[in-house]
Amino acid sequence: MTLGARSSLREVVAAVGDALRRHGIEAVLTGGACSSIHTAGRYLSHDLDFITRGRVSQAQLDLAMSSVGFRRFRDRYVHDRTPFFVEFPAGPLAIGSDHGIKPVLKAVLHRRVLMLSATDACRDRLAAFYHWRDVQSLTTAIQIAMRNRVGIARISAWSAREGHAKDFEVFRQMLRKQRRSS
User: Which residues of the chain have pLDDT under 70?
Assistant: First the structure.
C-alpha cells in the first residue's frame, strides 16, 4: 500500500500495522488512533501510538517504518506525503494500574492490526477523563460504547479499583442518555 496526501487514518494504521508485523515486531495500537478505529472515524487523531511488546531495537523500528515510507524525526516517525505520524511510547501496555491488557487482532482494510479491544479503548479514554478531567475523552468513550459491544461490568469494576466509581457513574448516565436519544 502506497501512502499519500489523501491516505486516511485507517490506511495508515493498516500499512504501519502490517509493516511492523512483517518485520517481526509485536506492537499494539493504542490512544487516539485506536479510538478513531473503534468510533468509525467519529474521533480523529493525527498520531498513531503503538506500544511494542518484547525487545525491539531502534534499528528494527527504523527498518520496518521505512518500508512504508516513514523516517525517524526526533521521537516520532513522519512521512513526507501524509499528515499522520507514528510514535512508540514506552511500555508496558497498561490502562491506569491494569497491566493485564489482552490486545485483539482487528481487520483494518483487509489487514490485521493488533490493538486495544473496544472495551480497553473505552477504558483508555475514560482514564484520560478520570485523571485529567478531559471531557473530549469522555465523549470519545461514549462514542466507542455506542458503536461497539463493551464490557460495562468490567469497566465499572476497573473504575472502582482506580478510585473513580463516581466518575464512572457520570459515564454510565451519559451513555444511557445517548442510547435513549439514538
Answer: none
